[in-house]
Design a protein that fits this description.
Helices cover about 40% and strands about 15% of the residues. By secondary structure, it is an alpha/beta fold. It has two domains: about 10-35 and about 260-355, Aspartate Aminotransferase, domain 1 (Alpha-Beta Complex), CATH 3.90.1150; about 50-260, Type I PLP-dependent aspartate aminotransferase-like (Major domain) (Aspartate Aminotransferase, domain 2, 3-Layer(aba) Sandwich). The chain has a seven-stranded mixed sheet, with helices on both faces. The protein has a four-stranded antiparallel sheet with strand order 9-10-13-12, with helices on one face. Strands 1-11 form a two-stranded parallel ribbon. The termini are far apart. The chain binds pyridoxal-5'-phosphate (PLP). Pyridoxal-5'-phosphate binds near residues 85, 187, 212 and 220. Pyridoxal-5'-phosphate (PLP) binds near residues 85, 86, 87, 111 and 225.
Amino acid sequence: MSSHPQLRPELALRPGYHSPQVDVAVRLNTNESPFPPPARYLERLAAAIGGTELHRYPDRAATELRQKIGALHGVSADEVLVANGSNEVLQAVLLAFGGPGRTVLVAEPTYAMHSHIAQNLGSRVVDVARRADFSLDVDRVIDVARSEEAAVLFCCSPNNPTGTIESPHTIGRLLAETSAMVVVDEAYGQFAPSSALELDASWRDRLVVVRTFSKTWALAGVRLGYAVSSPLVIAGASEALLPYHLSSLTQLAGSLALDDLELMHQRVEAIVAGRNHLAQAMADLDVEVTPSSANFILFRPRHRAASVVWSAMVAAGVLVRDCSSWPGLENCLRVTIGTEAENAQFLIALKEALA
Ligand SMILES: Cc1ncc(COP(=O)(O)O)c(C=O)c1O
């Protein structure tokens, strides 16, 4: 009897989510921080690891870390969920509140993992396409969320890969005019002028704001993300996490990072200044630039194929993300803001590739 294991159909037919890694000098394709963690942070972390009881299981509730994140946002620890990267946070929320038989609404083009995770879990995914300028068609999102009885509605702000944001007013409308749980993915929230966390706390019965240590905190390798919501939602999503899911080392790394808020603010300012400088310089080139509130910029060559520009830039030692095959992103490329030197190299390579 032949008995090949059968992959679930939800997983079998879908392209994977990954960015090709090419070994070049300037890698501006995955929206990471261009700066490594500060030296003084690494020294403190190394010293603290020595005192960690690695033969013991970690604090299952990650109490200290959740208290410190709570203090950052003026909420209590029971309003904070922590997990291995914001991807695991999103998965826990969907495990608890999405799942088979429930509908999840996304607005493409957006972060692919929202629909991927929802599909993995057997949810029905409904897409409400963004407008040509990538803004959310709010009235239509509300109509569809109501008619399809969406259990969960994703709003990525700033949106990856477009960099566009939704105001707290818009998020407020989504909450007031639908009955869905509204998950605002703010992985790039620190680079934006507003946040859904500004909304009245009474909305948190259905509002979940998700953030990560992977970008601003320069800790993508640590894998730490979190959500802020009501104690009931957090308790519900926690049910979906495995016991002792967050290692002692991850808890320690996150907790110590929160002692260096000033450095984090300086870094955000440097990246925002770099983004504004790049956007201005790119406005003079033969590309359409989407205004960004994140640490990346989406752009579209006007008279060249994006794939040709991408290859020419790789040959010049600069890697950006080729988004041109993604639905709704015809001929688009995305560049992550780098260091001053990397941004300068990117501009030179782009000018040459367009010439
Ligand atoms: C919008 C968005 N959300 C979540 C993530 C996942 O981040 P992490 O799992 O590293 O916290 C990313 C990563 O690029 C992202 O772009």
